[in-house]
Write a structure and sequence with these properties.
6 strands; Arc Repressor Mutant, subunit A; 2 domains; 11 helices; alpha/beta; Rossmann fold
């Protein structure tokens, strides 16, 4: 696994890079968003660890630039910020997950591996915030639905799988529940993300819950 670490604090970069390398992970690091974009194009990482609060090009702007330049690998935000607005903005921009820098060190590599397998990873401390976001309550007011008919292109099976994604189920759990293979679930999830024009399961789940799929499943 090759990780691109983008963080403007040198000590943080050194510490995280050392932690990952001690566990056999290849690390390329950058001290700014601009440098991170260049490194992503040059080094072709498998996944990006990206700080949110950076001078110049911040984390969200960096992720948007990466996507615009054709870098489609998973992006995990790794930050000290637990603010609702930052979490919401990151997920809306297509982050695969949102981790806090005070997480237990041994949890970082498993989080990266989960993201590479298509899982969405959010710090446990932020699950309450995530719940408010998917209910449209972040910032104190409801958000308007992104699309009038967001699921029009989904097949019945894709809609069924999206309901499980909205519940937070992994590909393996979905496969066991629906009696299909993990690979089949993965293909369906990719099609769902493409049809909804989003980059991550988290963003797809947010849209699903906003339109009642998550509530439907929990009540059913």
């Amino acid at each position: 696994m090759r990780v691109l670490l983008i963080d403007d604090h040198a000590l943080v970069r050194k510490g995280i890079a050392g932690l990952l390398r001690s566990r056999g992970v290849e690390v390329v690091s950058a001290g700014s968003g601009e440098e991170g974009v260049r490194c992503a194009l040059d080094s072709v990482p498998d996944i990006v660890l990206l700080d949110v609060k950076m001078p110049g090009m911040n984390g969200i702007e960096t992720m948007n630039t990466l996507r615009a330049r054709g870098v489609g690998v998973p992006v995990l935000m790794l930050t000290m910020s637990s603010e609702d607005a930052d979490l919401s903005a990151a997920l809306r921009a297509g982050a695969q997950g949102y981790l806090l820098k005070d997480m237990e060190p041994e949890e970082l590599v498993p989080a990266l591996q989960s993201a590479l397998q298509g899982e969405s990873v959010v710090a446990k401390e932020l699950l309450g915030t995530l719940a408010r976001i998917v209910r449209g309550e972040a910032g104190g007011r409801a958000e308007a639905p992104r699309r009038s008919a967001p699921f029009a292109e989904l097949t019945a099976r894709e809609l069924e799988i999206l309901e499980h994604v909205a519940k937070g189920s992994s590909n393996k759990v979905i496969a066991n529940t629906l009696d299909i293979t993990d690979g089949t679930v993965k293909l369906h999830v990719k099609a769902i993300l493409r049809k909804l024009a989003v980059h991550s399961r988290v963003e797809a789940a947010v849209i699903a819950v906003e339109h009642g799929l998550g509530r439907k499943m929990r009540q059913g």
